[in-house]
Input
Amino acid sequence: MFLNFSNGIKIFFALLIFYSFQGFTQQKSNLEIFYSLVDSAAGELISNIPSSVNSVNLELNSGTIYSVFNSRIISALNKQGIKISEDGNPFKVIFVVEKASTDYSEIFRSGFLGDYFLTRNLTLKGNYFAAGNDSVNQFSISYSDSIPLDEVRSFENFSFPFTHAEIPEEPFFAGLFEPVIAIGTAAAAVILFFTVRSK
Output
């Protein structure tokens, strides 16, 4: 019986470590997620370029702060067999990143007295124009998930301000009653322990 219990404990902790590690490796940094959002926006742009076009005159208007995205857009075009040519190319393409923003909200617990998590919201906004279209196409792409509160800063990138955001305050009542609940639970466990022993 002791051997089975011991094996059960080992399996439990092995699964706990495995799933904890798996959850950690799956979560991307804010910058990595922005790269994915840019890839999606570039995909929209590419869908507006005729399949017969294999080179474009590309103009990227992302400013200094968002210039980190330029290589992703060029790479997305190249992967589709679309090369970037000189100014003489008649097929003009303009891609603009207007805003990339990070927002943290809704702090919550993963369970009763569990770790704190918060909701992470990232948004990319901009527009693009491809020759032959009558109008500029706007895009707004968002991503949301939950990340551990005590690891928030590890998801940000010091060099890029748009990957940072203010962390909301922890809920007042949760912080107030947590010590009371913990002490009450410990006291109940002690009472139960001595009650069972006395029988």
Remarks:
- DSSP finds five helices and five strands in the chain.
- Residues 172-198 form the longest helix (27 residues).
- The longest strand covers residues 92-109.
